[in-house]
Amino acid sequence: MQRFFKNFSVRELLRPLGQMFMFSVGSAVFLSAIILLLALLLDRTAAGAKVLEQYQVSLFTYTLVNLPQVLIDGLTIGFVYAAIALGYTMVYGVLQFINFAHSEIFATGAFVGVEILIALKASGILDSVSLTMDYVFLLLAMLGGMIAAGAVAVAVERVAYRPLRGAARLVPLISAIGVSFFLQDTIRLTESLTTGQFNRIFPTFGNFDSRMAFGNIQMGATSIALGLSNKSLIVIIAAVLMLMGLNYLVNATKTGRAIRAVAADRPTASLMGVNVNRIISMTFLVGGALGGAAGLLFALKFTRIDAFVGFYPGLKAFTAAVLGGIGNLTGALLGGIVLGMLETFAGSYLSVFTMGAAGAEYKDIFAFAILILVLIFRPNGLLGENIAQKA
User: CA–CA distance from 133 to each of 137, 138, 206 (Å)?
Assistant: First the structure.
């Protein structure tokens, strides 16, 4: 057993599990302590009196009772942001620029996966298979989205970025923005020609909407059900597996060593026999595939998608990458978890703490305000840029 864990490949495969556990627990404890302290300070104010009148419990008790479910929801969306952020991080690590078209690559994966499931649903296949096969078809749809998104990412790199590789850094950035708009309109045109619809709804099948109940928590005369939906569990498990797989690819394989070599010094890597163009294309392929998988997970979680579905998740994932440390795989994971929890905490408690003056619609403002504060005091993000291992 000791030899098993000393094996480098196994260690690199399992190391992300420890990081995820540490970041999840650390973020949960730190943010929970802050929110509980605020609730304690506000308990005897007008906000506390209003909660006491409405729920017959103190503001501190209300905050504490709702905390477990808030943490579960925050982790779920945090892992989605982390999975998307990895695409930004990989491209930045290798080419030193932000691929703003990654949001639309994410949307491509979501649309392809959802369209596959809609076609299967229309043919009646999803209505006549076992529960196990429902998960198999979901996996197949995810693989379809990953292949499509990865192919689009490689095509974008070849057409829009490779010819501009020697240009000033602002030039490929502008090209990325142009590609983003082009892909948005391509999705809209394709959907209008094939389905005539702007919005697509994730088809209902299987038991994805069922909830695993962990119990009930009594709050005055109200009982709060604590649980996790099957779809949320799928999102977490899939995101964890993707993060583990990427970490293994980058740190324990020959391709990963080549990616790290190109990220560290492109001319020297070329002199050492590394095919730089192939490695950069591979980086876009992997990042795009992860974005496509995250797109289907997002559609599973939130049900409705449209041509602009990638904008806000992509923006938040980019924020997560910057928050954790752009170019740092571990930082992307930490940034996604922290941002997801910040957003969920704000959406759950902001209205109560401000007596309705600022509701859940301000959660994005709150999360980005925290980002600005972090970057003021730590411009390189929470973990900083990983110069030796940017990919």
Answer: 6, 8, 9
Can you tell me the distance from the alpha carbon of 133 to that of 100, in angstroms, rounded to the nearest whole number?
Answer: 36
Place of tokens 């599973």: 300
Task: From first to last of the 391 residues of the chain, give the pLDDT tens digit.
Answer: 455 445 556 666 677 777 778 888 888 888 888 888 888 888 778 777 777 777 777 778 888 888 888 888 888 888 888 888 888 888 887 777 788 888 999 999 999 999 999 998 888 888 877 777 888 899 999 999 999 999 999 999 999 988 888 788 788 888 988 999 999 999 999 888 888 888 898 988 878 778 776 666 665 556 666 677 888 888 888 888 888 888 888 888 888 888 888 888 888 888 888 888 898 899 999 989 999 999 999 998 888 898 888 888 888 888 888 888 777 777 888 888 888 888 888 888 888 877 776 767 777 787 678 778 877 888 777 776 554 444 3
Tokens encoding 290 = 């992860």
Domain contains 255: yes
Q: How far apart are CA 237 and CA 40, in angstroms?
A: 35
Number of domains in the chain: 1
Q: Which CATH number do you get for residue 111? A: 1.10.3470
State which residues form the domain around 255: 2-377
- Give domain status of residue 389, yes or no: no
The answer to whether position 107 is within a domain reads yes
Pairs from 54-60 (Cβ < 8 Å, separation ≥ 24):
55/219, 55/220, 55/222, 56/220, 56/221, 57/219, 57/220, 59/352, 59/353, 60/36
Domain presence at residue 384 = no
CA 67, 68, 69, 75 dihedral sign is positive
Lookup: tokens for 99: 């691929």
At 59, the amino acid letter reads: L
